[in-house]
Amino acid sequence: MRPRLVAQALGALLLVSGCASTSTMQMGLLPHGQKLVTLVVSEDREVVDRECASVAATGRLLGCHLWRRVTLPGGPDVRLITIVRYTDSLPSALALEIDVHELCHAIASLQPIPDPCHTDNGGAIKAAAHTHPRWHSSRSSIENTHAPDHPSASSTGTR
Questions:
Q1: pLDDT tens digits for range 65-75
Q2: What pTM, to 2 d.p., does this model score?
Q3: 14 occurs within a structural domain
């Protein structure tokens, strides 16, 4: 084959196959400067395989959670959590930010620390800055409908 034809065939193959992408977000700034939660969402199975390589499993992993323990200044041990998952389509920036924010609250609530999930952003959803939504902990009608037995549930909303 001629070099020009090979280059055209490779270019067409790249256009058809597309490129796999990965989105990563962290939240929950702790006193020592590390983040409580890291969320990695990838369309690339090799990213998931690499990030989850230390997880003992049979077969191909579609996701995992990893953690490591750190000691905060003057106080308790805390687990920093990384969640890695495969997806067929990346979430929007807004959906990713909401996911990592709610994961942050869930993980913080199970540890002996004050909730750090608003220290990064003051509770504002940066991906929706033009609408000025805020995170808050008051109960909403959605919670009353869907979570009547969970009075400590927090919600997201707009002000």
A1: 999 999 998 88
A2: 0.71
A3: no
